[in-house]
Design a protein that fits this description.
By secondary structure, this protein is α/β, with parallel strands linked by helices. The chain has a domain at 7-105. The chain contains 14 helices and 15 strands. The chain has helices at residues 18-22, 29-41, 48-54, 64-69, 78-89, 94-105, 175-184, 203-214, 228-231, 242-254, 274-284, 304-316, 333-336, 340-351, and strands at residues 12-14, 45-47, 122-123, 126-127, 131-135, 138-141, 190-193, 221-226, 258-264, 289-296, 320-326, 362-368, 371-381, 384-394, 404-407. Strands 5-6-7-8-9-10-11-12-13-14-15 form an eleven-stranded mixed β-sheet. A two-stranded antiparallel ribbon has the order 1-2. Strands 3-4 form a two-stranded antiparallel ribbon. The radius of gyration is 22 Å and the shape is globular. The two termini are 36 Å apart.
């Protein structure tokens, strides 16, 4: 059973409700049309809890939670918005609108870090398209029934999962092949269920994915990537299967494995309702741990005071601050991205405002093609202003924890915007070709075989 509108008291709002919802923000007809044009390209979904209990409509459209879930007309290039708005205005055939939207999507890097091209693990000769194995000890699994959310974030880097284009989806319901893959790769100790949002699934379906993992001695932790606590806390309070879900969590913990809720909170407002606090208490009461993470998003949380308050609230509730991410190079990145230098300043200034118990958090971190790159700071070395960076995780484990430098660029927002300092290449890059066309060798910190082929798990 998966969550559907009308079940469990949940009411979804989708693009067909967008026009009437935008009236609350005081938009005129033309403004509403242009927002609807954006919603033909990027997904829109929210629910009555977010609309009625989290958004301050008196402050819309500047309210941070409004901006978190509602499309903005300047999220896409003006020419694209005008073109699709004209199609909607003249009531063009649906196929023509879909074609125009598809054209725009393909320019938005729908699958960053080579997710479809590179991350295709196999069992025998058969690929598992809903599985990613980017780092030796961890696999990500995308349950087929979990490929939606209680509400979509406007910044979501997995927006391509939700736009109704099958070729852009990553998902599988083959639990047996997941288990077979894990048995073939005993170095894997952690499985992350992600999506979408796995907590959109009812308990019987969730159980079908989790219980087989409990039989594998090699698995030390099961992680669930979710924003359900923020967007639908009733999932753990009053939904008909809330108690059964919590008993499933207890079973995981009793098996000796860590159950980690990787909870997404983008703004302190999401943690203010008593429903949220009650849901957190119930999840923690099962023995699960809750680690928190979110991207740094311009116009929503690009303020150190917001992050410091968020981390303090999380720590007070028993959650563990975990990651501040950099907005990924996909979708409306240009709209939401914060330059890396400013991102580090926000992290530093927020970090300075909290106690040591909150300083479990790491960041700002980029989940880029070669791995998770953390910006440690901006400094001057040998008279040159540079970024100091290191890998938190890497496809090549030899790179983990080793500092490296990039030339300071005040406009850089992603790893690919940076240029190496004090070297002709970054440690994750292979040597340039010689004049006879052969390679000078691999990077100074070891070979990077994962980038040379599709079998990333070897």
């Amino acid at each position: 059973m998966t969550l559907k509108e009308g079940i469990r008291g949940y009411r979804a709002y989708t693009a067909k409700h967008l026009d009437e919802l935008l009236v609350r923000a005081g938009f005129d007809a033309e403004q509403r049309l242009r927002v609807r044009a954006v919603a033909t390209v990027l997904p829109f979904r929210t629910n009555a809890y977010v609309v009625d209990e989290l958004i301050d409509w008196s402050a819309a459209p500047d309210d941070p939670i409004y901006r978190l879930v509602f499309p903005q007309e300047d999220m896409l290039p003006e020419a694209d918005v005008s073109r699709i708005a004209d199609l909607l205005r003249k009531e063009a055939p649906a196929a023509e609108v879909r074609a125009a939207a598809h054209e725009v999507r393909m320019r938005l890097n729908p699958h960053p870090a080579g997710q479809l091209e590179l991350n295709v693990p196999r069992v025998g000769d058969e690929p598992i398209h809903g599985l990613q194995h980017k780092y030796p000890e961890t696999v990500l699994f995308f349950p087929k029934q979990g490929q939606t959310c209680h509400a979509y974030c406007t910044y979501c880097f997995r927006w391509a999962q939700f736009v109704g284009e099958p070729d852009l989806k990553m998902a599988s319901d083959d639990v047996a092949r997941l288990v077979a893959y894990l048995k073939e790769h005993p170095q894997v100790t952690s499985v992350l269920l992600t999506g979408g949002d796995p907590m959109i699934m009812g308990e019987p379906v969730l159980r079908r994915y989790i219980e087989p993992l409990l039989e594998l001695e090699q698995i030390e932790s099961i992680r669930i990537g979710t924003k359900s606590l923020a967007y639908w806390p009733a999932r753990f309070l009053t939904d008909p299967d809330a108690d059964d879900t919590l008993r499933l969590f207890e079973k995981v913990v009793e098996s000796g494995k860590t159950l980690a809720f990787m909870a997404h909170f983008s703004h302190p407002r999401e943690m203010e309702p008593e429903k949220l606090r009650a849901a957190v208490r119930r999840v923690l009461g099962t023995g699960a741990v809750i680690r928190t993470q979110a991207p740094l998003i311009r116009s929503i949380n690009d303020d150190p005071g917001v992050w410091a308050r968020m981390w303090r609230l999380q720590q007070q509730m028993g959650m563990i601050p975990y990651y501040m991410f950099v907005e990924r190079d996909t979708g409306p990145q240009d709209y939401f991205a914060v330059p890396l230098g400013r991102a580090w300043e926000i992290f530093r200034d927020a970090y300075a405002q909290v106690s040591g118990l909150c300083r479990t958090v790491r960041g700002p971190s980029m989940s880029a093609t070669p791995g998770k790159v953390c910006v440690d700071g901006v400094t001057e070395v040998a008279g040159q202003r540079v970024f100091v960076l290191h890998f938190i995780q890497a496809r090549n484990p030899e790179l983990v924890g080793r500092p490296f430098f990039a030339q300071y660029d005040p406009d850089a927002v992603w790893l690919t915007d940076l240029r190496p300092a004090f070297a002709d290449r970054f440690p994750f890059e292979t040597a340039p070709a010689t004049s006879n066309g052969t390679s000078n060798g691999t990077a100074s910190n070891g070979a990077f075989p994962a980038l040379s082929g599709a079998r990333l798990s070897a």
